Amino acid sequence: MESIYVMTGREIWRTITRFWGKLFGINFALGVATGITMEFQFGMNWSYYSHYVGDIFGAPLAIEGLMAFFLEATFVGLMFFGWDKLSKPVHLLVTFMVALGTNLSALWILVANGWMQHPVGSRFNPETMRMEVNDFMAVLFNPVAQAKFVHTVSAGYVCASVFVLGISSWYLLRGKWTAVAKRSFTVAAAFGLASSLSVVVLGDESGYALTDNQKMKLAALEAMWHTEPAPAGITVIGFPSVADRTTHFEIKLPYLLGLISTRSLTGEVTGIEELVQKAGVHIVSGIEAYDAVEKLKMDRNDMAAREQFERHKSDLGHALLLKRYVEDPRTATPEQIAQAAWDTVPNVPVMFWIFRVMAGLGFFFIAFFGVAFFLATVRRFDSRPFLKTALWVIPLPWVAIEFGWLLAEIGRQPWAIDGVLPTFLGASSLTVAQIWTTIAGFTILYGALAVIEVRLMLAAIRKGPVEEHEIPAGEGPDEGYAPLPAE
Question: Which backbone phi and psi does 422 adopt, to 5 degrees?
Answer without folding.
Answer: -65, 150
